[in-house]
Predict the structure.
Amino acid sequence: MSEEFKVEIVNPEKSFLVKDDVSEVVVPAFEGEMGILKDHISIISFLKPGIIKILSKSGDENYYVEDGIVEFKNNNLSILTSTIFNLADMDKSKQQDLLKQAEEEANKTDINDQSKYLADQKVEVLKTLN
Amino acid sequence: MASLDDLKKRIASVKSTQKITKAMKMVAAAKLRRAQESAEKGRPYSEKMNNVILNLSNGISDRENAPKLLSGTGQEKTHLCVVMTSDRGLCGGFNSNIIKKAKSYFAKILDEGKELKIITVGSKGNDQLKRVYGDKIIENISFKESKNANYFDADKVGKMVIEKFEAGEFDVCTIFYNQFKNVITQIPQAQQIIPLNNEGEENSSEESYEFEPDEDEILSNLLPKNISTQIFKAMLENSASEQGSRMSAMDNATRNAGEMVDKLTIEYNRSRQAAITKELIEIISGAESL
């Protein structure tokens, strides 16, 4: 029996990615990284800024996301996100732009704890990429 | 009767108007295809979002303490209406239809003695509403600079709505937009987004989900996003409707201009002939009298 399942990433503008030969997906869930394999229990969770790793036969892919929701059900993984970039397509200047934005956000004083936490996360993740 | 010269000028001017409307129709048709495509592409996101929220709200154990965005503030005193229109005119009844729908809703609310606040998105709606409801409009947003509807803009509107909700400025929020059915038909819609209205869909999957973190926390994170998503959906539908409406309006205008040119041409030919006949009669009767 195959150990593969289907993953679908959707952003508001379009269906970003559909793959049905995925063996494992690691998502940056809010309470820590979460690896999802076939026949995982149905789960809903949301994401913090981080890297989505998709492992499949046709090669591994990494995506940077800033937020989102994951839903896993009947071996279908749906990821809804408003901001997503393929790391392979992301060049240094784009990274720097995002980092600058995130840093500015993190340095704001008038934001609440949660947005502050999220902004810090962004900075951290983006720094590790460089 | 107009002189030959005048007729000639009028024919020329109607013809050039026809050229313009024809060109606008073509442009609208091209834009329509793109807008329609992005409206279709945007659907999975809002559908999935709805699904997840449905599953979540069914799983909520404690309905009393559900997030306010879902269950409402418990009263219905102040209504916020987000009226979404276009920034450009010449698109048939597109804007008037939304405004008509919105106005009848406004009248109903005011009749019931409730308070009304309006946010207009798009300058055309603001133009039409400010005469009667000028004092009710609290915000006017326009995205003239952005070429296509994008999520970033929708998010801005969504954040603003949520901010106002959290500040307790209103209890119920409704958005008005045109739903795209096909090129000829666009249906003005009033959709309530706060509190979330998902009656009649109780019997979704019985499958239980695992939640991480718990339902309440996910919901309170998700609901604001859903507002932006719904607004974005409305924007996409609206832009497809706008182009569709403009296309059929311009098509009609082109056809009418064509009919007018035909009529004017017949009139022109008649008067030309009449002039020739008159001249002939004059010559003949002049020769006879000699």
Remarks:
- Chain B touches chain A at residues 38, 41-42, 44-46, 48-49, 51-52, 55-56, 150-151, 154-155, 207-213, 218, 221-222, 225, 228-229, 232 (CB under 8 Å).
- Residues 4-21+252-285 of chain B form one domain.
